[in-house]
Amino acid sequence: MGVESRRTVELTSGAKQHEGPSHHPPRIRQQWAAFNRVRSTQLPVPGPEEWRPEHAEVLREQRLRQAEAEAREARGTGRNVLTCWRQMPDLPEDASVLAVEWAFEGPAPRATHEVDDEVAFRKAVDAQLGRERRWGLWKRILFAFLMFPCVFGGVGTSLQGPLGDGSVPGALLAYAGFTALCTVPWSRETRRLAARRFAEQWPDYWREALAAHTAHATWPERERERVAWTRRVLAGEHEAVLESVQRELEALELPFASRCEVHLDGAACAFLAVDLPEIDDVVPEVKQRMRWDGTVEETGRRTKVERHEDYLRLVAGLGLLLARTTFMAAPTMRYVAVAGFTQRRQGGSGALASEFVYEAAFTREEATSWHPATVDPVRVLQAPANRFSLGPDQKLWRIDPPGWWVAPPEA
Questions:
Q1: Which residues pair with 358 in a beta bridge?
Q2: Which of 410, 31, 11 is nearest to 246 (CA)?
Q3: What's the confidence (pLDDT) of residue 229?
Q4: pLDDT averaged per 10 residues, the chain (length 411)
């Protein structure tokens, strides 16, 4: 057997919790999540004439929910330390559906033109503020109308003596000024509020409209890139398969830090050596449970045997998770071997040295049969072809390194 490639993958706690924008095509798991996602009716970005203040919040919430759902589906790991491995990806039988271009999700957005859209948006905001404050204007007009006898009569009477017949135009002019005093401040305040609302909402609207237009315009190119890369993976191209496996393993959100050495032998066989977490970091001595009010209470202490049994179940489950993730990342993969090692102090010298504690091999058919919620990883590990040794207290003892293992060069 010739090992063709090797790569170190960091399984850092929470490192890929929220993946940022990347020039890489979506990972295989992300593609399956998108393929199987229930297409809900999404609110399209309205034209500037139909824009309302609540649209910004609705679109923001919609985008946030979609991003969280995609991240959860594409990541699929849990924060419960002892059972995080149960969130294993599915292994669909036919991956060829990923190698065809998909239609754009949702309705095609309207064409954008910044100058025209800005003018239309400003008019829409002015009209909207006018409708919202319409009752205030009518109250002022009604007040001015009701005050007509007082203003007109009072001013006319006071001007009768000095102006004579000219008192009537003077009274009308005074009433016009009174009406302006009632309505002009309202108009100025409306314009001020409209300008502020425009300044607040136009950037949100333009950002949403531009993002929707850009997503639609770049969709064909992104689909071509996705399909081209996916076809390379499905065809078993070495670099694409290695990249796919690495990206999927890196995207796992494990509740502890670890690393994994990945070896590929062609496109059908993979060999993983995983650096297991220390028992003190993942299996607490105290048992805890969540109370009805959300608080945590201690329910007792774990014995040494119980801690070792919990640790065995965790590290064996971690092997299942890594194997199934590898099978999912590379549909051409037929065989995955996983070996776990940990650092222990050596007797006499006290120096830390890596010791392998289990080695297991899985076929794709075996991995497909695992039900994440019920599979017992220890029972899977007990298959005759696998290797591990337990002490009287259920502690994993050292075993010889796998035959395929080659120690990484010194840094």
A1: 340, 388
A2: 11
A3: 96
A4: 67 56 80 74 68 71 69 56 90 92 83 86 81 57 52 48 52 53 64 84 85 88 95 95 94 89 93 93 77 65 89 96 96 96 77 90 96 95 95 93 79 46
Q: How far is CA 63 from the centre of its chain?
A: 10
pTM of the prediction? 0.74
The most distant pair of C-alpha atoms in the chain lies apart, rounded to whole Å, by 122
CA 73, CA 371: separation in Å to the nearest integer?
17
Using alpha carbons, select from 385, 387, 410 the residue that is nearest to residue 398.
Answer: 387
Q: Is 158 left (phi over 0), alpha (psi -120 to 50) or beta?
A: alpha
CB of 245 closer than 8 Å to CB of 219: no
Provide CB contacts within 8 A for 167, sequence distance 6+.
155, 156, 157, 159, 160
